[in-house]
User: What shape does this take?
Amino acid sequence: MPKEESIKEKVVAFLNEDNHFTRGLSFVEQKTGVNRLYLFGGCVIFLACYLIFGYASGFVVALLGFLYPAYASVKAIESTNKEDDTQWLTYWVVYAAFNIVEFFSDIFLGWFPLYFLFKCAFLGWCMAPFSWNGSNFLYTKFIAPFVLKHEKEVDSYLKKGAAMADDMANKAKAEATQFATEQVLKSQTGSAEPESDKKED
Assistant: This one.
């Protein structure tokens, strides 16, 4: 019960923040007399039905998984509090890992009727405003241990890749310089030949 009350309190606190979404809720609340918490619940139910039966569900989920986190990330960057920076940086790490996994699994799961509903619920869990949300859980249990285990190998490959890229850039620069020099010499030689011909005449 305390955990459920804590979640409800955080949802209520979120719904009472000052932003475009809550202003819209406030306007509808004043016009209808319905509590904004119930209005929010109705929006969630409508969204769930739309993701099951609606058109362009994939685009809607992608939009939801990107727009609010991007907005919250900008606010986190501009604030002096470092906890929200860590929260949203963790979300983007998990979001990137999820997109890589989804790239390979989408072929098999994309046709499943409830796929986008579950995806939306998953992303909602990842961005939820409590400490045991999906981002923290997945990062702590899976991503961080995997990265730390292979950190030295990854850094080694990155250094080799950076060295190769630097070498290729230097070679390309040298070839471009040589080509430009040859073109200048050719143009100078070409302009000098007519003058020598005139002197002979």
Q: What stands out?
A: Residues 55-173 form one domain. The longest helix spans residues 151-200.
